[in-house]
Amino acid sequence: MDVTLLGTGAPAGLPRPHCPCAVCASSTGPRARAATAVLVDDTLLVDLTPGPAFAAARAGRSLHGVRQVLLSHPQDGPPMEVPAGLPAPVRVPDGQDFALISGHRVRAVALDAPGTGYAVTGPDGRRLLYLPPGAATAGGDAPPAPYDLVLLDVLGRPEALARLRASGAVGPATDVVAVHVDHTVPPGAELHRRLAALGTRAEPDGTTLTAAGFHDVPDVPRRTLVLGGARSGKSVEAERRLAAAPDVVYVATGGTRQGDEDWAARVDAHRRRRPASWRTVETWDLTPLLAEDGPPLLLDCLSLWLAHAMDEVDAWSDAVWENGGARRLAERTEALTRAVRATSRTVVAVSNEVGSGVHPATASGRRYRDELGRLNAAFAAECEHVLLVVAGNAVVLRGAE
Mind telling me the catalytic residues? Predict the structure, then answer.
């Protein structure tokens, strides 16, 4: 089964008409994307894009053999042309199945948002799932086997991909391609970096995909360290990397602080940002979690873990530090890095990068800064992927995306 992407953008296209944002300003030429529409084996057209006949011709395809045109969502973008000779576009009621004379079978999939998804089985038995923008499947029975190809709004609804993975609809060999791409992410390298972190990819308009054909699956790192200064966006970057995982344990190392309203507000902001399916564990004892088998861990953050470890050994005292405190702290950090080296779990850890900031005025402050720098370096040495987030932009220090 061949699937040609006549368009891969949001319903309004990319760039959006008259939008002054930086993403739209840079989404020109080969980075521009028409509204998403897909042509399956030159027989089935799902959704419409401006000038569909010309879009097909540019991709080396023709619409002359199209026997069915399906709509998955209200067409909110520019007025859509229906070329002469094409069947009238229709939306299929949820749960309805039908077959085309070409041998393709189509089932309408119920969603949690307005619109309809379509599961298409080709004459060769290959299977495609197509979801409209901003939608996830409503749940129900698990499919008999993973789909070969899935097209969905990965950037707008990463948890939709998490649901598909949890249900078995998406497996290790499923080719997941992002469509309905909007102006939420800069085009080019940043777009592909974010999608690769989720085990997905994007292709330009006009690309033809072969379901179950060979494709280069993005290599998702198993251990990642995300560094950054205060309010740099490091926690958002770390959370984004696991947004499409079906199950995540969020490890909060900061604990609770009675009477500290600012701290409570920070904790609440983090909780509201995380998917409801994530489980939260509040602990400083990271070694047992790393030793267990289980779902991915998001450790937020190492700087608070270090502060607690220094409290435990009274490392803030110069006298204690000189008389065994330094050694006891080193033992704790070495135990943590050994656990990271040995863990079988996927781990994304967050830490502050404080070495480039203001020089601390006290000896204890300088000690904390130095020890955090050492911890970050030791932890990074055990990670396949290391990022530095600056002003919301992630710079790759180790690994490739």
Answer: 270
